[in-house]
Specification:
InterPro entries: DYW_dom, E_motif, PPR_At4g14850-like_plant, PPR_rpt, TPR-like_helical_dom_sf. By secondary structure, this protein is mainly α. Helices cover 68% and strands 4% of the residues. Among the domains are: 94 residues, Serine Threonine Protein Phosphatase 5, Tetratricopeptide repeat (Alpha Horseshoe); 108 residues, no CATH class.
């Protein structure tokens, strides 16, 4: 073949192969490569041979056939820098960073010197996730050796590499060595500091950039605003917005405007966020979603939903991120019908298998109490990540199904999904809910081994666990070992002290908070008032209530008023308690419930009836006020009124809550439900026998059943058998006695308030069997020992 013809054929094949590469036309590319091989276009030593081989390699790489590209490369006589760089670039862009570095080292060993394109290919997609700082330093060293330290583009990427690996000091040193840094150079060094949480240095660099006469662009501002958002630097961002961004008009740009919305939204400055949103010229889906998120996360759920409606009118189609943000708003509002409509839209839009949306839907339905619906969505999801598992576990824990939460946690681990800190918090909360101390301590050891025990939410959950299980020393040890604490942490330890009868220690915490520069919020004062209540300290309760409202300027919420009513009621100040409720600016079923409970303790039937009627109106499906009012009437001997209350309850279709109690023995949590037709436990015979034996011993010791409780029978949660109350906590107690060595302390958790007869009986049992028995019911902790309860018989 003539040289001219060969040259023409090589050029034609190169053009066709380039087209196949651009179109990802692998079959056609393979045929052309076959033609090249048959015509022996790659067998003679010609100047165009390497060029054609490089084009073949690039065609295979762009079509995803790495093995075929490597095969061509291995057959090359002249493995030049272009071929090496092509392979390195392909592996880097495909995410195979380790393979790319192996090739880079082989290239150096073969004696081929990398050029600026080689270095660019390696650094452009540097994997910061691998934190491969040592490897990056070696690449930097080769750049210096080959004389590319003066190449601004290459050095920009070196700065970026150090930033991704967390070495901002070295990133700064390299940046300072760049001659005449341009806007990209400045933005990259700003991004390096922003990614590593150095907000103030980011702002200083922006100032230096302006002083150097380099004009920031939109990407520069979005990077700076991202740094401010991460640390909540609202005032600094406001100054930047007013002094610089507004003057350039970039706040009308969708990307910069969205960054401002995210910043203002996170800092709760909704007026500023919406002002920016309105000014954006061409709002994209990201802008709309960010504004919806800002409303939802700041508690403005109705505004978030209204904005979605406006978005629909504007013809902007929501994406998965939009729906996640809207679901957050719907969840907090408990807008059932609208939530179901959004769910239907998600399905219609084809997002049923989106993991983030699955988690959001599970969270929404669990928040509404529709746990089975949430589980159905969870089970139907094709892909489940740790977030969706955690959402479902948290849902069970929050809906009084801690045993199911722990079961699902075990199922998750069997499925090979590794729990994260959020999952551990939900699992630890579930242990607290069911009183599973042994399981909880095992989780404590696991998070300690994983280094998560210093994580504030995890440590706070542990404080809560130990507090609810009556282990104050362990709760205190976790609390004192925390380097950082938030308000919820302080609240948890205060609750732990208060619920376990150590109110004075709880009250001292307020002083400790102030010494650490923390201002208590309303939730902290709830814990303090609860402590005063459990300690029977009315005067201190009034003092801290006034301190909260007058000195700290915290407006009383439902929980504070409920605590104060309970405190006054416990002291017998029923008139004052009712007056407080009548002066409240809001209706509160909780406050009326506290008054009703106090009326039961002080036998005030008329006031009890008024309180109950109020609760019937506010919570028509709540069984508790019917039960309490019946108890009041029974205690007063008004049996007909008690029966009438029960008939009203049944006639209105109000379902009684079943009493559930659990006890942890060994590695297993046993749960009992009162009034079950069949008791699903293999030791049921032994349990009944133990309780009957105890009943006879108690009668001999002077136990007399509470006539009111016996007469009530199953009004509360289940019937009575013989002399021993067979409510759920007594069944758990029976199992504990027959399943553990003599003298072993027993811990029982119950979802409802203990009835008076069970309370009396448990005091007798603690003395007869010489055990410390702890029962955490729906009201407080009871520590029974030697015939005495820590609550002082008021709960």
């Amino acid at each position: 073949m003539e040289a001219r013809e060969i040259q023409a054929e090589i050029s034609a094949c190169a053009a066709i192969l380039t087209a196949c590469s651009d179109l990802r036309a692998l079959p056609e590319g393979k045929r052309v490569h076959g033609l090249v091989m048959r015509e022996s276009l790659l067998q003679d030593e010609r100047p165009d041979e390497s060029l054609l081989e490089n084009i073949v390699i690039q065609m295979y790489l762009r079509c995803g056939c790495t093995d075929l590209a490597l095969d061509v490369f291995d057959r090359m006589k002249d493995q030049n820098v272009v071929a090496w760089t092509s392979l390195i670039s392909a592996f880097t862009f495909a995410g195979h960073f380790g393979d790319a570095m192996v090739l880079f080292r082989k290239m150096l060993l073969s004696g081929v010197s990398p050029d600026r394109i080689t270095f660019t290919s390696i650094l452009l997609k540097w994997s910061g996730r691998e934190r491969n700082l040592d490897e990056g330093k070696r690449v930097h060293s080769h750049i210096m050796q080959t004389g590319y330290e003066g190449d601004r583009m290459v050095m920009n990427l070196v700065v970026e590499m150090y930033g991704k690996c967390g070495d901002v000091e070295q990133a700064g040193n390299v940046f300072d060595s760049i001659q005449d840094p341009n806007v990209f150079s400045w933005t990259i060094i700003i991004a390096a500091y922003a990614q590593n949480g150095h907000c103030m240095e980011v702002l200083r660099l922006l100032s230096r950039m302006n002083q150097a006469g380099v004009k920031p662009d939109g990407y520069t501002f979005t990077t700076v605003l991202g740094a401010c958002t991460a640390v909540g630097a609202l005032e600094e961002a406001k100054i930047l917005h007013a002094a610089t961004i507004s003057s350039t008009g970039l706040d009308r740009d969708a990307a910069v405007g969205t960054a401002l919305i995210n910043l203002y939204g996170k800092c709760g400055a909704l007026e500023e966020a919406f002002g920016v949103f309105v000014q954006i010229d061409n709002k994209d889906i990201v802008s709309w979603s960010s504004m919806i998120a800002a409303f939802a996360q700041s508690g403005q759920a109705k505004s978030a939903i209204q904005l979605l409606m406006l978005m629909d009118l504007e013809g902007v189609r929501p994406n998965n991120v939009t729906f996640v943000n809207v679901l957050e708003a719907v969840t907090s509002l408990k807008a059932f019908q609208y939530g179901k409509e959004i769910h239907a839209r998600i399905v219609q839009a084809g997002y049923s298998d989106d993991v983030c949306l699955t988690s959001a839907l599970v969270k929404m339905y669990c928040n509404w109490g529709w746990v089975e619906t949430a589980r159905s969505i969870f089970e139907s999801s094709r892909e489940r990540d740790v977030v969706s598992w955690s959402s479902m576990i948290a849902g069970y824990s929050q809906n009084e199904s801690p045993a199911r939460a722990l079961s699902l946690f075990r199922e998750m681990e069997v499925d090979g999904v590794q729990p994260n800190s959020v999952t551990f918090v939900s699992a630890i909360d579930a242990c607290a809910g069911v009183g599973a101390l042994r399981r909880g301590t095992q989780l404590h050891e696991r998070v300690r081994c994983l280094g998560l025990d210093k994580d504030v939410p995890v440590a706070t959950a542990l404080v809560n666990l130990y507090g609810k299980c009556g282990r104050l020393e362990e709760a205190e040890a976790v609390f004192l070992g925390m380097k950082k604490k938030n308000l919820l942490t302080w609240t948890s330890i205060a609750m732990a002290y208060g619920q376990n009868g150590h109110g004075s220690r709880s009250l001292k915490l307020l002083h400790g908070m102030e010494l650490q520069g923390m201002k208590p919020d309303g939730i902290v004062f709830v814990a303090i008032l609860v402590s005063c209540n459990y300690a029977g300290q009315m005067s201190k309760g009034l003092h801290y209530y006034n301190l909260m409202t007058q000195d700290f300027g915290i407006a009383p919420a439902v929980e504070h008023c409920g605590c104060m009513v309970d405190i006054l009621g416990r002291a017998g100040k029923l008139e004052a308690a009712e007056q407080l409720i009548n002066t409240m600016k809001f209706e509160s079923s909780l406050a009326w419930m506290m008054l009703l409970t106090a009326c039961k303790a002080h036998n005030d039937t008329a006031r009890a009836a008024r309180a109950a009627e109020k609760i019937f109106q506010l919570e028509p499906k709540n069984a508790t006020p019917y039960v309490l009012l019946s108890s009041v009437f029974c205690a007063a001997g008004s049996w007909e009124a008690a029966e009438e209350t029960r008939r009203r309850m049944d006639g209105r279709g109000v379902q009684r809550l079943l009493g559930r109690s659990s006890i942890e023995i060994g590695d297993r949590v046993h749960e009992f439900v009162a009034a079950s037709d069949v008791l699903p436990h293999h030791l049921v015979g032994e349990i009944f026998a133990a309780l009957e034996k105890l009943g006879r011993e108690m009668q001999g010791a002077g136990y007399v059943p509470d006539a009111t409780a016996v007469r009530l029978r199953d009004v509360e949660e289940g019937g009575k058998e013989n002399a021993v109350p067979y409510h759920s906590e007594m069944l758990a107690l029976g199992l504990g006695i027959i399943s553990t060595p003599a003298g072993t302390p027993l811990r029982i958790t119950k979802n409802l308030r203990m009835c008076s007869d069970c309370h009396i009986a448990t005091k007798f049992v603690s003395k007869l069997v010489h055990r410390r028995i702890s029962v955490r019911d729906g009201r407080r902790h009871h520590h029974f020992e030697n015939g005495v309860c820590s609550c002082g018989d008021y709960w």
